[in-house]
Write a structure and sequence with these properties.
Blueprint lengths: L18 H5 L24 H8 L9 H40 L1
């Protein structure tokens, strides 16, 4: 048995189901209403019951969802680190400019 209940309208593999939510959580739920907001998830279904069906099925950890989840989170971390680095560079530039202005005044 695959562990998937035929009575359910959606199965873990359905295109409507967020595979990242099946693994742990949907990254689109992170940083809402901030500059780092990822926007709405393109998958409309984030259902704990479907996650449990997936985790008890024979497909658990065999579909590549976990690897995709990890790559997505690594990409988010890389983007955040790049933004932080740019802001630090901008801050250093502004501080050097202010020191030059102070020496003129």
């Amino acid at each position: 048995s695959s562990g998937i209940n035929a009575e359910w309208p959606l199965r873990p593999g359905s295109s409507q189901v967020c595979k990242m939510f099946l693994v742990r959580f949907c990254p689109h739920d992170l940083f809402t209403n901030t500059k780092a907001d990822l926007g709405a998830c393109k998958h409309e279904t984030h259902d704990v019951k479907i996650r449990e069906v997936y985790k008890t099925s024979t497909r658990y950890k065999r579909m590549g969802y976990e690897q995709t989840f990890l790559r997505t989170l690594e990409g988010i971390v890389d983007d955040m680190e790049r933004k932080i680095r740019r802001q630090h560079e901008r801050l250093e530039h502004d501080e050097r400019y202010m020191k030059q202005v102070e020496t003129i005044i």
